[in-house]
Design a protein that fits this description.
Elements (H helix, E strand, L loop, with lengths): L7 E6 L3 E6 L3 E6 L6 E6 L5 E6 L5 E6 L4 E5 L7 E3 L6 E6 L6 E6 L5 E6 L4 E7 L4 E6 L5 E6 L6 E5 L5 E5 L6 E6 L5 E6 L4 E5 L20 E3 L2
Parallel strand pairs: 19-20
Antiparallel strand pairs: 1-2, 2-3, 3-4, 5-6, 6-7, 7-8, 9-10, 10-11, 11-12, 13-14, 14-15, 15-16, 17-18, 18-19
């Protein structure tokens, strides 16, 4: 499976399509169920595509680029349905709400530092918050209406936010370099983060769907597990 002319920096799966973004500024889509897997090419960014995320219903694809743009694509057109240009740095961090359709969140790089919330029905920006640091990753909890963000320069922190109030639930520190990677456990309670400091850290961030508990500080364990609730 090929097609890109330069490095492929980001991938996103939905139930049947693999989308890939590259330094060649293009997004390629492949249907992995069939032998002739190439589906199409989306052209809209002016520089490297560094963020991709499918909506929860698989109908929309959000892409972020080093051109500071956030584009939203749908299955009916090869042209972007929305072109959102309020970020002032690269848009790598993207997440769709599992609780509300057409609700998208994005994060900007070092010169921007903001998390921005969008209604993709009309393209309106609903809210934003300045985090004070480069936004590297975003993930929406499926258990509660909260978001986790990971950061780079200058604080390398991990933050948990309530939505829609955008009040901080917790600020987690421990990584000494940019927090490049974020993944969530299948039960939606634990996240794992990876950073340029060559460590993986596990955090019990979100409550279960059945037993929410108050936030508590239990300290930090290097390469261990930290709980905030």
């Amino acid at each position: 499976m090929g097609g890109h002319q330069t490095r492929t920096g980001v991938l996103a799966w939905n139930s049947r399509i693999l989308a890939s973004g590259s330094r060649d500024r293009n997004i390629l889509q492949h249907d992995m169920r069939v032998s002739s897997d190439f589906v199409g090419k989306l052209v809209g960014h002016k520089s490297e595509v560094c963020g991709l995320k499918w909506s929860c219903d698989d109908r929309e694809l959000a892409s972020g680029g080093n051109d500071n743009q956030l584009l939203v694509w749908n299955q009916h057109s090869q042209q972007p349905a929305l072109r959102l240009t309020e970020h002032t740095a690269a848009v790598k961090a993207i997440a769709w709400s599992p609780h509300q359709s057409n609700l998208l969140v994005s994060g900007g790089g070092t010169a921007d530092r903001c998390i921005r919330f969008w209604n993709t029905t009309n393209g309106h920006q609903l809210n934003h918050v300045d985090t004070g640091s480069q936004v590297c990753n975003l993930a929406w909890s499926k258990n509660v209406n909260e978001i986790v963000s990971t950061h780079g320069y200058s604080q390398n922190q991990i933050m948990v936010w309530k939505y829609p109030s955008l009040s901080k639930v917790a600020t987690l520190t421990g990584h000494s370099m940019r927090v490049l990677y974020l993944a969530m456990s299948p039960d939606g309670q634990t996240i794992v983060t990876g950073a340029g400091d060559e460590t993986l850290r596990f955090w019990n961030v979100f409550p279960s769907m059945k037993t929410p508990a108050p936030v508590k500080d239990t300290g930090l364990w290097s390469l261990g597990r930290t709980q905030i609730r």
